[in-house]
Amino acid sequence: MSDIKKDHSIGEGTGAVAGAVAGAAVGSMAGPVGTVVGAIAGGALGAKGGGAVAEAINPTEYNNHFEKNYTSAPYYVGGSEWRDYKPAYQYGYDTYGQYRGQRFEDVENTLERNWNEVKADSRLAWSEAKGAVRDGWHHIERAMPGDADGDGR
How far apart are the C-alpha atoms of 89 and 134, rounded to whole Å? Predict the structure, then answer.
């Protein structure tokens, strides 16, 4: 499988997972059946959004960019490691496609609610991870046509 095809498949897969988590969270308000329906619908939408993001931003290059630069970011917490920040950048990547067309600030509360479910081994609380998630989100936004924020930040 070519690297481009593989990265595109990864983008769809990570988008599907992020969409399923968010869909399940929203669907849970309607009870157990809502959780299942929300997870399925969110997964389908997330896969579609993740594929579009992977076409514009190679996920491997995205990851390498942030791994190389995270310690110089203004939100970096001294003593933190890449394993702490990688899930935050991944979360930005995974959720951008799902919420494409919306401003980060408009979905921030939803992202915060789901952070503990997706943060894996990261030791960062949302207040520490938010900057990396936002940075990842805006990195993609600048590469995609139709920047929602208009200023590319």
Answer: 8
Are 55 and 24 in contact by the 8 Å Cβ rule? The answer is no
For residue 146, the 8-state DSSP code is S
The letter for the amino acid at 28 is: S
Instruction: State how far the Cα of 103 lies from the Cα of 153, in Å rounded to an integer.
Output: 11
Query: What is the tens place of the pLDDT at every residue in 28-47?
Result: 566 665 555 555 655 545 44
- The predicted-structure confidence for 71-114, as pLDDT tens digits, reads as follows 999 999 999 999 999 999 999 999 998 998 899 999 999 999 99
pTM: 0.64
Say if residues 35 and 28 touch (Cβ distance below 8 Å). Answer: yes
